[in-house]
Amino acid sequence: MRQYLSLILLFLPALLFAGLFWAYREHPGLGIQEKFPFVPWQFILLGFFGLIATAGGVLDWRYHRNPLQLKLSKKERNAEAAALGLGGLPMFTAMWMATLSEDPTRFLIPIVLILIYTVVLICYDEFVFHIRRCGKTETCYHRMLVFGNGLAWLAWFHYIYCR
Questions:
Q1: Is the peptide bond before 37 cis (omega within 30 degrees of 0)?
Q2: Which pTM value belongs to this model?
Q3: How many CA atoms lie within 13 A of 156 on its CB side?
Q4: Nearest to 75 by CA among 1, 150, 2, 149
Q5: Alpha-carbon distance 50 to 136, whole Å?
Q6: Alpha helices per DSSP H over the chain
Q7: Which residues of 46-65 are buried (b: 16+ CB within 10 A; e: fewer)?
Q8: Could you read off the pLDDT of 106-140 as tens digits, one per residue?
Q9: What is the C-alpha to C-alpha distance for residues 150 and 156, in angstroms, rounded to an integer?
Q10: Domain that includes residue 7, residue range
Q11: 92 three-state secondary structure
Q12: Domain count, the chain
């Protein structure tokens, strides 16, 4: 189970977002319309970049296991799980709460603090475990994951604070 934790945490925000989006589809904070495009453009971008990030994460996870038969150290597995679980899940929670809030500015400081914490965790994982070991293929997967998540986050952040 421990070897699948990062993979499970990778899918959790997307599944939570889809489930909560459907459950709260009547909430005015989501801006769902009856006419096309039905949802604000920021959510379309969030989905697009989220798919890229998830694909990069899955490809990286498979690359670590299949072609490389790579045995990840416990420290590296912990670093990846921390970035996804201790950074990504609190970020998702704060962003969702801000999305539904009538006053999202009260979530701004927690969101920025979680963002800083998450970026530090990602940098630790990249610079300690990956910088010397990764080839072009694995680096591409990491960029898909990191930049996809970053752009998805920016789209969501824009929706919350610039609508």
A1: yes
A2: 0.88
A3: 27
A4: 2
A5: 22
A6: 5-23, 41-65, 74-81, 89-100, 108-124, 136-162
A7: bbebbebbbebbbbbbebbe
A8: 999 999 999 999 999 999 988 888 787 788 998 99
A9: 10
A10: 2-162
A11: helix
A12: 1
